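Throughout our pipeline, every protein is held as a single compact record rather than as scattered files. Such a record has a labelled line for the sequence and another for the backbone structure tokens. This encoding replaces a full spatial description with a residue-level series of whole-number codes. For reference, a complete record is included directly beneath this paragraph.
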Amino acid sequence: MKVGLVGPSYEMRSLPFDAQRTINLFPVFDEQGKEVAALYGAPGKSLFATCGPGPVRGCFSSSNGRAFVVSAASIYEVTSNGTATALGSLDESSGIVTMAENLSQLAICDGQKLYTLNYATNAFAKVTDPDLPASVGTVENVDGYFMVNQNGTGRFYISDLNEGSSWAALDFATAESNPDKLVRCVNSLGQVFLIGSRTTEIWSNTGASDFPFRRISGAMDVGTLSPYTAVSIANAMIFVGQDRYGNGSVYSTQSFNPSKISTNAIEYAIAKATDKANMRAWAYQQEGHIFYCLTGGGLETTLVYDLTTQQWHERAYLNVDGVFEQDLAVDHMFAFGKHLVGDRRNGKIYELSLDIFSDAGDALAAERVYTHLSDEGQRIRFNALEIGFETGVGLQSGQGSDPVVSFSLSKDGGRTWSDTYTASIGAVGQYQAKVEFRRLGVAEQMTFKIRISDPVKRAIIGSYLR
């Protein structure tokens, strides 16, 4: 009998109701194959560059092929061979930064001040034009104009065309369909999403000579509690929402209409976050999957939505105490044909790859907690569980030469777990190895948990009770 191996992270407030977790694994579907769904291992990390002591505050891949990282109080350029060169200093050494570019400049906003880097000369400087507000929150580029939101107000300002160091006193407008404060400007689908704390307006560049941007009629009745969670990808903008009734749902805008994509379990995880305003997100595309990664802000782990399968999973770093915490990666850029991510603890930049099976040299532990198995309160004898791993993936030597999966079970809805047992998933070339656990016992409800920590390929294709 097949059992529920493949599924999302769906841990509820009541564990006996649902305790599912999918950590450092993600569901994939294939309706043409032997099984319609499987779990693949999340990508691992290997060191690519080091940008000072860190932490990494933001990454940016320019359209001209250059790559930049803000680490602590410095901005670095990273080259294709992993060399990092400091180009200038910011006033502050902590906090999330946003970055945008025009044809000749990179603009960086640290939540208070704005800086520019000239691509031709590498000159880096703080913008001192008196017509730029003294405190700005984020920066975006739309049609050659840098755009910033003035902190604590509904106003946004635009720079001169293709010149981030020059601002005019009257080149501003106000998102005023509702009285909430403007916290983020995002360029998505060729329009400007002006995201407030409770509502969102959409503006368009009309080319008017006095001020080029005008509001499109209407507004979305949802804003954001976490301005750094707004990401534009795959013809949509995704963000953690907030309105007058509450907060903590994740929305995706399609045709300028917000649709909720978070589940009750994901909203429960967000509700437990201790610093929601400082959650942040990044997104990337890999082998046909588009991932939105929500992290920071006191979340227990990093929450990841796969736009391709519409399933949520978790990514996490296994700390020295054996506890899962947020993933190391806090931002992403695609540069030199590689997915590069920055470390939340230091200045390290990693390559993110499905062919890497460690977490920057540490164990990349992957875990799946199954759906509960029961039969209307009847006691059931569970004889054996067979797990359909891709076997024979062991390494030639060292850790992973005889990779194992650990297994434990719960009879109380995932609140306590049995001792841990292990089984081999096959040394290199042992393609016929069978992964099976026997004599599981009798219970009214049974829950299974598996974990793989060895640095080998992870592909789990089906699970069966015998």
